[in-house]
Amino acid sequence: DVVFSVIASHWDVLYPRYHEAGEIQLAYCGYLDERLLSFEPKPFADRNVDLGYRARKLPPYFGRLGQTKWTIGRKVDHLARSAGLRTDVVLGEGNRLIGDDWINFINDCKFTLGANSGSSLLDPRGDIQKAVKRYLKDRPEASFEEVETVCFPGLEGKHEFTAISPRVLETASLGSAQILVDGEYSGIVKPREHYLPIRADAANFSEVLEAMQDIGEMERMIKRCRETILDCKFLRYTHQAQRVLNLIQERCKNGSSRKSFRGIEEILTKYERGIGKKNKMLWAWQDTKSAVGK
What does the buried/exposed string (b/e) look like for 202-218 if buried means 16 or more CB atoms within 10 Å of the residue's CB? Predict the structure, then answer.
């Protein structure tokens, strides 16, 4: 009955048939949980890393927008180190941080780099992805430009499907100043008010570096960003969970049988016993790992 989409626009392109007959509601790539909301951020001056970043090297079929997620890290890391900043930037699959390790990493960074989530390439049937994989199998070192020319000429950038990432929410709640590639970020955070904007090619890094030196303004920017994110109740897991449950109950009351609702209850119970239990075990393991590390 309802599709939740993390993309705020282009619904006619993403859901060409459904958008006319069904209902689409906006959702987000991630939400804040109560555990994170109760976490005490480390004071800005006590953080050991000047600038931190983690990103996967996405394949070309995510478009240039996907490429920017890792190329911006490489460029800014080089420029920041040249300027004498202490950085902790890792690109690729190695040294991935999860659970408390990720939270503690952000909490130790004065500034955190970020980029748009999403893709700038439309591939509704996966044809581009298949073509790219075939091409890279024989030419793994091929550049993005080469792959684009061969596999999807003229298609890059016709649409941009972007959304605010969980990283932006987590970084805001943990009090790290954000340096974000120019973008919309679901209209929730705004450049200079909530983050320092940087171009995709890092051409304005000197301006960003100058702004980073004004510690007083950076601490005010951190506060504005944190307050804005925490004031958005729709960015919390509890709100989204209740929203979905209310929607299910509403649909059941408007024509679905009690039998259908019992089916929904069974699914929720199965989730709690299965996935929910696994998540709790993962968090417990992370807590134990962090305690041993200390």
Answer: beebeebbebbeeeeeb
Sign of CA dihedral 79, 176, 116, 54: positive
The pair of structure tokens assigned to 246 is: 């209310």
- The letter for the amino acid at 72 is I
Closest CA to 196 of 275, 125, 110: 110
Q: Give pLDDT tens digits along the chain (294 positions).
A: 789 999 988 999 999 989 888 899 999 999 998 888 888 899 999 999 999 999 999 999 999 999 999 999 999 999 999 999 999 999 987 778 988 899 999 999 999 999 988 999 999 999 999 999 999 999 999 999 999 999 999 999 999 999 999 999 999 999 999 999 999 999 999 999 999 999 999 999 999 999 999 999 999 999 999 999 999 999 999 999 999 988 888 888 776 545 555 666 666 666 666 655 666 665 565 556 555 654
89 and 97 in contact (C-beta within 8 Å)? no
CB 205 within 8 A of CB 1: no
What letter represents residue 266's amino acid?
Answer: E
Sheet holding 109-114, edge to edge: 87-91, 49-55, 109-114, 177-181, 196-198
Q: What is the model's pTM?
A: 0.84
- Closest by CA position to 236, among listed 85, 3, 33: 33
- E runs forming strands in 125-190: 161-163, 177-181
Question: By CB neighbour count within 10 A (0-12 exposed, 13-18 middle, 19+ buried), where does 142 fall?
Answer: middle
Cβ atoms of 18 and 31 closer than 8 Å: no
DSSP 60: G
